[in-house]
């Protein structure tokens, strides 16, 4: 029997050698597996399907699916572009000079908030927004509630926000204007090469600077922008937030996201592979101030002579932040006030200037005065003609087109302010774009400011600390000069490198250790100020409640003690 089997196998080999045929991939591949392997191949898809069915409802309930779908895995994803670029090269290796020349690119990374471009994007955008601990700041003991809370708030707010976006065309124009600003900035950088120092001019003549966009809460995300930067082999990067004033919740949040990625892969994002510098704020730049002043003056000049005799008022409306952020050291309020003061210096003497804050969310106290309250106050004082100016925005979006143009205009007219005008956002204003290009060239030639230094100078914690440590200190008022230094650093050197970083090829080392916050002021918040719910975040009250009733019970107890029920929290 054994010999017969051997003869049969030998005969099959002989026939196959005489008339070879194209193999049947399905049969041959299946025949190469053992019986146990074939059993596993049939079983594993069923196990995977069952596992997905059991896990997905839980992920959906806690709102984690949106975060995972919108945030790719960082480690492998960011290294992929370099591998992809290498795979598309020819088999002949590049010379060392060619590799150096190809990698010597200059990039400008524009940071912005992002916004949903379609109606169906509104809810995941809101989830990403409220899942950011810099937007909703929970104590470390209950930080695990960030995802569930973001899911509930985004579900609750989605219908109202979707209706607001529908009223301006179905989506936010922020992405469009940011792309236009990036293109305009690239053209302006090329046009200003003659103003650049020789080393920078030579670098940009060999390869023009390229702009990238990193949105914090919607596409293109920070990870996507960094993938592009890696694929383009950028070696020197200027990080430019599109926020004139620095705040922990805007520029600080984007810088923290960048820092986390840079720390996770220092070989790709640290020197010598990539050198970076940050322009943390630019509200004091002459070009920016001049462009805003000119746009506002155009609106003032549009009033008739009779209206000018009645009096013209200018209301600068800035995006608000919780008051607790400023109490904890956020320089935003001081920079806003200084910015308005510098712009108003060029107005006619008969123009009155005011400042207010808009877009507050929730029952806690935000920076005052609120814009709607300020409009009613001015109307009660007999103001008839008013120019509203979006001071902390450089692009048209939902908070200018819907909140200011529709909601606040209605409030103003009801208060008797019938001569309402709204100054447009800067968008791609030529003077503004020219000043941004000058800021990039100056940053390339100045001592490098690393993300760690920019965050430390503006009281941003790169490492999470307990609430009682994060809530200490208070932001300092800026000096009266036109070029104020960062608050909190009166006697200390901010920059560790004293020569232009593009010439030396060196950048500040990424400090992966804990950065000590240098705030020195004592917390003097009023214990009785604000609604009851706002006081839940005070450490002495919070920890007492948590110890008595548990985590969820403590939150519920404070909510029930405030005016209203759960609608007070989620009916935002």
Describe the 3D structure.
The structure is a single chain. This protein starts with a helix and ends with a helix. It is 51% helix and 9% strand. It is globular and about 110 Å long. Helix 14 runs antiparallel to helix 21. The strands form 2 sheets. Strands 2-1-3-4 form a 4-stranded parallel β-sheet, with helices on both faces. It has a 4-stranded parallel β-sheet with strand order 6-5-7-8, sandwiched between helices. With 572 residues, the chain is α/β, with parallel strands linked by helices.
Question: What layout of secondary structure does this protein have?
Answer:
Blueprint: H1 2-18, H2 25-31, H3 35-61, H4 64-70, H5 74-87, H6 96-103, E1 105-112, H7 122-130, H8 146-166, H9 174-191, H10 198-206, E2 210-215, H11 222-231, E3 234-241, H12 248-264, H13 266-269, E4 275-278, H14 286-301, H15 305-310, E5 312-319, H16 323-327, H17 332-344, E6 351-358, H18 371-380, E7 385-390, H19 398-401, H20 403-414, E8 419-422, H21 430-445, H22 451-457, H23 467-470, H24 501-504, H25 539-549, H26 551-561, H27 567-570
Parallel strand pairs: 1-2, 1-3, 3-4, 5-6, 5-7, 7-8
């Amino acid at each position: 029997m054994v010999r017969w089997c051997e003869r049969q196998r030998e005969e099959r080999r002989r026939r196959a050698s005489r008339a070879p045929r194209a193999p049947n991939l399905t049969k041959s591949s299946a025949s190469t597996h053992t019986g146990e392997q074939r059993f596993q191949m049939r079983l594993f898809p069923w196990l995977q399907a069952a596992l997905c069915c059991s896990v997905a409802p839980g992920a959906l309930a806690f709102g984690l699916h949106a975060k995972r779908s919108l945030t790719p895995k960082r480690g492998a994803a960011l290294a992929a572009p370099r591998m992809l670029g290498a795979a598309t090269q020819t088999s002949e290796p590049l010379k060392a000079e060619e590799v150096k020349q190809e990698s010597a690119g200059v990039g400008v990374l524009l940071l912005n908030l992002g916004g949903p471009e379609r109606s169906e994007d509104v809810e995941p955008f809101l989830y990403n927004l409220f899942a950011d601990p810099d937007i909703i700041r929970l104590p470390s003991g209950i930080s695990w509630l960030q995802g569930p809370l973001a899911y509930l708030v985004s579900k609750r707010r989605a219908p109202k926000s979707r209706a607001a976006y529908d009223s301006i065309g179905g989506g936010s124009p922020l992405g469009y204007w940011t792309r236009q600003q990036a293109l305009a900035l690239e053209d302006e950088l090329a046009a200003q090469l003659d103003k650049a120092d020789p080393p920078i001019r030579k670098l940009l003549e060999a390869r023009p600077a390229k702009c990238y966009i990193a949105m914090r809460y919607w596409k293109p995300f920070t990870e996507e922008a960094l993938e592009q930067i890696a694929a383009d082999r950028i070696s020197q990067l200027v990080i430019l937030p599109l926020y004139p004033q620095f705040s922990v919740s805007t520029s600080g949040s984007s810088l923290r996201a960048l820092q986390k990625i840079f720390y996770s892969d220092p070989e790709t994002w640290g020197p010598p592979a990539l050198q970076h510098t940050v322009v943390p704020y630019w509200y004091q730049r002459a070009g920016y101030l001049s462009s805003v002043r000119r746009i506002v003056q155009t609106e003032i000049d549009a009033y008739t002579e009779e209206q000018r005799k009645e009096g013209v008022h200018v209301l600068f409306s800035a995006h608000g932040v919780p008051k607790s952020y400023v109490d904890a050291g956020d320089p935003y309020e001081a920079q806003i006030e200084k910015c308005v003061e510098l712009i108003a210096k060029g107005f006619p003497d008969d123009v009155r200037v005011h400042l207010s804050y808009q877009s507050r969310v929730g029952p806690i106290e935000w920076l005052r005065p609120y814009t709607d309250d300020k409009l009613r106050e001015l109307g009660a004082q007999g103001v008839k003609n008013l120019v509203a100016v979006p001071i902390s925005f450089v692009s048209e979006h939902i908070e200018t087109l819907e909140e200011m143009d529709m909601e606040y205009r209605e409030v103003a007219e009801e208060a008797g302010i019938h001569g309402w005008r709204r100054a447009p956002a800067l968008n791609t204003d030529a003077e503004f774009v020219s000043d941004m290009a000058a800021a990039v060239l100056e940053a390339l030639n100045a001592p490098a400011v690393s993300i760690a230094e920019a965050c430390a100078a503006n009281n941003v914690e790169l490492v999470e600390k307990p609430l009682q440590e994060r809530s200490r200190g208070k932001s300092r008022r800026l000096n009266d000069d036109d070029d104020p230094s960062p608050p909190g650093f009166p006697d200390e050197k901010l920059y560790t490198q004293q020569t232009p970083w593009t010439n030396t090829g060196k950048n500040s080392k990424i400090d992966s250790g804990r950065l000590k916050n240098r705030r020195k002021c004592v917390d003097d918040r009023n214990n009785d100020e604000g609604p009851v719910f706002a006081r839940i975040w005070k450490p002495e009250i919070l920890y007492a409640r948590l110890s008595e009733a548990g985590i969820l019970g403590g939150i519920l107890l404070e909510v029930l003690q405030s005016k209203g029920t759960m609608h007070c929290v989620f009916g935002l």
